[in-house]
Amino acid sequence: MDKKMIERINQLARKKKAEGLTEAETKEQKELYKVYLAEIRGQFSQTLENVSIKEADGSVVPLKKKD
Prior knowledge:
This protein is 64% helix and 9% strand. By secondary structure, it is mainly alpha-helical.
């Protein structure tokens, strides 16, 4: 996500709080939030893939996904 998209999200949030949004702006805001959240979730998943747990016996095992 680039700076321009984040600035637009912030701009719409400020406008929504101050005066409200038009129908088109509300739709745009929802789409931008979807993209933003997908990116954040992807980054979080990447972080979790690199997490390891140190067991009591000293061994290190990667964090596993729950089924």
